[in-house]
């Protein structure tokens, strides 16, 4: 899928000053950028966002050779404009305050109180722009005994209990706490943060005033426990690791076939009855041990003992073909490469190829196009737009400062002073 001209996005006209880096903050601002907001990402001169260097893997140039740009950065920074400003420099601070005065939203993920010394904290910026929506993302929030601590996704996955319910049970091969394969706390914190920002922008329409948003990775991690947290709160019993099985549904897991595994996700008794009929064992659906989901969960081991030899009599593809038109959820367990090659993924255009440089620009070092994953947001009247790839470091500094009213001489002076 390649970008195309679209109608103005839902957030067209909204200006976002992005002071965040790594993943949670940039994931938040990428959602806003995809929806049409003008997001200006502020990066350190010379080095930029930490994730520009988190490799391998690295991006490849037009000749197919690896560059020094990590692909990590490209996951969460499309549709943004990159400028370099040294916020420790007095002129850099003044420049950022000037930008904040014209912004609708500021997003930052510095340690608690870290921006106050630069005059870039909420109270300082609210004084010059009362309509500003200011979102801080930290590990543990703005208060509480851990507020001063640095927070990282892996640490929070462990602290919130997510790792205690992820992975095989202790007695199983490979048993023990396991992290999720992506930085899921960071990603979901970014999503919650973008939701909160949209709510604050909506509230501003009535009040005329912005507000402060306090987002914490730990808060998100606890919320992400969902039904597992609800189960603990209802019973007082902490859930345990169960591998790929589900604590409240059966059969709802991976199952071995003749040539590998399939994922069977049966969520109700009707689906189970249809599976039994297709598998040639309609009597299972009448067995008191298996007739209801509650009974199947209680007799999970007996059910799996019945199912195992039957599942292993066919290949994974044969099971998927057999069940796909019978409203029985069953599918492959893909690698990421296989997922991108899936016909449904291709039909939905989920792989993007975005240009970094516009046609009239002279390409800088590194790739001219960058592959990415399309937004899952599908709005009919104000669709997501794909305007540009994740930017090169400082690619838009002069452009953004010209829009702010600075001429070439003023920009050159700022650059000479070390502010840019």
From TrEMBL:
It comes from the Bacteria. GO terms for molecular function: CoA-transferase activity. Keywords: Transferase. Gene3D superfamilies: Crotonobetainyl-coa:carnitine coa-transferase, domain 1, formyl-coa transferase, domain 3. Pfam families: CoA_transf_3. InterPro entries: CoA-transferase_III_domain, CoA-Trfase_fam_III, CoA-Trfase_III_dom3_sf, CoA-Trfase_III_dom_1_sf. The keyword Transferase applies. The keyword Transferase applies. PANTHER family: SUCCINATE--HYDROXYMETHYLGLUTARATE COA-TRANSFERASE (PTHR48207:SF3). This is Crotonobetainyl-CoA:carnitine CoA-transferase CaiB. It comes from Paenacidovorax caeni.
């Amino acid at each position: 899928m390649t970008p195309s001209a679209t109608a103005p996005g839902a957030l067209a006209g909204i200006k976002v000053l992005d002071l965040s880096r790594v993943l949670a903050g940039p994931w938040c601002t990428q959602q806003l950028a995809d929806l049409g907001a003008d997001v200006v990402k502020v990066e350190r001169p010379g080095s930029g966002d930490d994730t520009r260097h988190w490799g391998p893997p690295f991006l490849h140039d037009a000749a197919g050779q690896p560059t020094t740009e990590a692909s990590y950065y490209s996951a969460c920074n499309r549709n943004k404009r990159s400028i370099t400003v040294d916020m420790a420099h007095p002129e850099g601070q003044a420049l950022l305050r000037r930008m904040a005065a014209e912004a609708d939203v500021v997003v930052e993920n510095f340690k608690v109180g870290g921006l106050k010394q630069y005059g870039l904290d909420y109270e300082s910026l609210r004084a010059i722009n009362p309509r500003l929506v200011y979102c801080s993302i930290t590990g543990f929030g703005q208060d509480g005994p851990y507020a001063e601590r640095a927070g990282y996704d892996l640490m929070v996955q462990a602290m919130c209990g997510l790792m205690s319910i992820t992975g095989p049970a202790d007695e199983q091969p490979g048993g023990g706490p396991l992290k999720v394969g992506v930085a899921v706390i960071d990603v979901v914190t970014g999503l919650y943060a973008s939701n909160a920002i949209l709510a604050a922008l909506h509230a501003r329409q009535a009040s005329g005033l912005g507000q402060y948003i306090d987002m914490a990775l730990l808060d998100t991690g606890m919320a992400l426990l969902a039904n597992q947290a609800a189960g603990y709160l209802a019973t007082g019993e902490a859930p345990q690791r169960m591998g790929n099985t589900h604590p409240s549904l059966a059969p709802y897991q991976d199952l071995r076939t003749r040539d590998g595994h399939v994922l069977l996700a049966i969520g109700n008794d009707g689906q189970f009855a249809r599976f039994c009929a297709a598998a040639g064992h309609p009597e299972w659906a009448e067995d008191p041990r298996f007739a209801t989901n509650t009974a199947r969960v209680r007799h999970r081991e007996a059910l799996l003992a019945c199912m195992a030899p039957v599942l292993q009599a066919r290949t994974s593809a044969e099971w998927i073909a057999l069940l796909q038109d019978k409203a029985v959820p069953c599918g492959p367990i893909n690698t990421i490469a296989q997922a991108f090659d899936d016909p449904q993924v291709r039909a939905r255009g989920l792989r993007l190829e975005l240009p970094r440089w516009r046609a009239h620009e002279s390409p800088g070092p590194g790739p001219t196009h960058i592959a990415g994953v399309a937004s899952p947001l599908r709005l009919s009247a104000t669709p997501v737009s794909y305007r540009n790839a994740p930017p090169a470091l400082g690619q838009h500094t002069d452009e953004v400062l010209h829009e702010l009213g600075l001429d070439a001489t003023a920009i050159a002076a700022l650059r000479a002073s070390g502010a840019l």
